[in-house]
Amino acid sequence: MSGREPISGARSGRRAFVGRLAVSGAGCAFAGARALDAEPLQDPFAAGSPLRVEEGGLNPSPARWFKALADGWVECGVCPRACRISEDERGTCGTRENRKGRLYTLVHSRPCSLAIDPVEKKPFFHLLPGTTALSLATAGCNLACKCCQNWEIAQARPEQVPSMTLTPADVAMLAKKKGAPLVACTYTEPVVFSEYVLDIAVAGKAVGVRTVMISNGYIQEQPLADLCREIAAYKVDLKGFDEAFFKQHTGGELKHVLETLRRLRRHGTWTEIVALVIPTQNDSEAEARALSRFVRDEVGPETPLHFTRFHPSYRLQNLPSTPIATLERCRNVAMAEGLRFVYLGNVPGHPGESTYCPGCGKVLIRRFGMAVAENRMKDGACPDCRRRIPGVWA
Amino acid sequence: MSVDVGRRRTLAGLAAGAAAASPLGRAALAFVPGPQPGPKSAPSRPVVAIGRREGLSTPNGVIDPKRLEAALGAAVARAAGEPTAVAAMRRLFRPTDVVGIKVNCLGGRGVSTRPEVALQLAAFLQAAGLPAERIYVWDRSDRELRAVGYSLNAGAGVRVFGTNEAYDERLVDWGPSASRFDRVLAHDLTALVSCAVLKDHGLAGASLSLKNWYGAVHNPNKLHDDNCTPYVPHLVAFPLIRDKLRLSVVDGSLAQCHGGPGRAPHWAWPFGGFLASTDPVAADAVGRQVLEERRKEVGLPPLAAEGREPGHIAGAARLGLGVADLARIERVEV
Known about the structure:
Order of helices and strands of chain B: HHEHHEHEHEEEHEEHHEEEHHE
Strand content of chain B: 15-25%
Helix content of chain B: 25-40%
Strand order of the largest sheet of chain A: 7-8-9-10-11-12-13-14
Structural class of chain A: alpha/beta
Number of helices of chain A: 9
CATH topology of the largest domain in chain A: TIM Barrel
Shape of chain A: globular
Structural class of chain B: alpha/beta
CATH topology of chain B: Rossmann fold
Order of helices and strands of chain A: HEEEEEEEEHHEHEHEHHEHEHEEEE
Oligomer: heterodimer
CATH architecture of chain B: 3-Layer(aba) Sandwich
CATH class of the largest domain in chain A: Alpha Beta
CATH superfamily of the largest domain in chain A: Aldolase class I
Number of helices of chain B: 11
Strand content of chain A: 15-25%
């Protein structure tokens, strides 16, 4: 691509783009800039544009969390990898580059994927059920999970995927226009575009749109603290509960994710946890029990925990989908350990998708797949026994 | 861009190409005897030839073309056990090959493969009978190549170009990771030359001919954990590279013993020559030795003492890619 061509599509302008967004239906709008018939909202090459998108579609913007080291090196401070990066090099995520001894994020305001999704798809089950979230991602991830669902964008560098230009204010405005009360930073790994998340959250607050993160939880203390001041909720993908498995499967260290969960509790940020259960890899009863005890004791017994069904993808094409009986066993173990809200994911129609009152046992929110079929919650409580149900309900 | 190899060499190259292309020529090539062992050679000892010349480059970095040809030519010739560089190229490559010379331009000027070096290798290949159009000099991006002084060329003559994200659509799992390989490497090239730089690397310890292949996949950023040790050997062992790799050259016209992979001028020194070997592991083992010698001279600790043992070299030997044991390598100055 030459340096001064539009990133995708013809330049019919911001209004037309927003107009097309507005007519696309919720839940089926679009995902993946590759498939989008969309233009940049702002022409990044226009005179006076605040964005200076380079050849290859990069938008270098000063990183917020890093340390300058000797000899022009920097140490990235966004995730526990703490990549030491020499000049002109990037960290593991491929999105943060050392330029003359300063660290820059290359993906600020450059989403590669954008869609309107039900909040249940994230999944958040205790956060504004039945609403939608404007969901977006930039390229890159700080882990390398063998089962990555979105590896085409998550395991790529930003210049390898088509992206559009969307400032934080644009994101907030789009969500508002679409009637989505949430912006979800998701699909890839929002930790690697934390600066963008933070700016979206601030811009969203100004127009009454809340921002949430769907993340692997692989983040350092300071950026997490900064984000927690602005975002409404954080979903952590807990990819296993065995350090050796975690390292082998993701390239990261489990202890850092567990620390993030503890910190989220201290920050008081609404948190839900997803545990992807992969047959023969992390599906033992002992692991489900250990994980459940950790959540109960260190995050809280009322924290929603979703056991999600694995389907073959990326580098794990050789394994079958998770048997539903395995997921049910995990759920039973977690409930026996005292967790109050344990769900099954990727099993449409299963009773384990619904929310039950821990007080009287009645169904509070009945779900089918990503749809809410019935919501009996009243003012954040069970309508029958008045037991308070934790979550963000309004 | 065309490479002016001179009338005489062009004629010699044409003649050689014609000879090799003829059935008789091909038959003769099949019976070319192996190189005569040197006085210190043994059949099991790979040779790493080091060609150095006083005044190879001026203090302001201008390379003397005659000294370049002499130093690089001597190293390449000795690496292949032939009397001349052209004979070496004729021995290592067929006139029908499409040869890719993979350079390393990531660090910018002063710490990248010099264009003159890559083009001199291309000139040797042409003189050995390869048409210029079947010689590619390439790296990750046009931008990085241009920054180092390469003139891009997509037309007649030796092609010089960047991958520019043109990676093959297929995701290939090669063990410790999975990558998309450069499309040209996957589909066009039949033979490879690694033309790397003699330099230190802050994570891998050293970035020499083996690590150069990180520039042939779409996700090098994912391959730096654990000093790159599990990744480099398995990547080079992948058949797309291993089966095509014929020659490894390390450009030490200006080398850097610390502060890499980016440029750190105060740690650079004019090594004034080139390493060449048909064994990529041996080339890197000797390259590492040269770096360690320089580090000692300037008072730096060994790489291992800084937690930067370049374990990928021994790892590559364990995968059978070559010899890392210096006692089993013939390091020869030519």
